[in-house]
Design brief:
mainly alpha; 5 helices; binds zinc ion
Amino acid sequence: MKCSEFLVMLDEVIDESIAAETRAEIETHLRKCGHCEVVLDTTRKTIEIYRCHEIYELPIDVSLRLHDAIMERCKKAQ
Ligand SMILES: [Zn+2]
């Protein structure tokens, strides 16, 4: 699995709506790739903060900015 493949699935990873075999691939990738581990952790925390404030969906501009920032970091990491 590549970082870009992981990032495409990030939403599903957080929702835990991924198949067991995909999850295993992701876990293998995360053990090797500290970058994606941080991305997942940061995104999870960001979503938790929003949920604490009872906003169940990220505002679209926040979501887009977060995604852009992640993609930008990912490009630099490769
Ligand atoms: Zn990665």
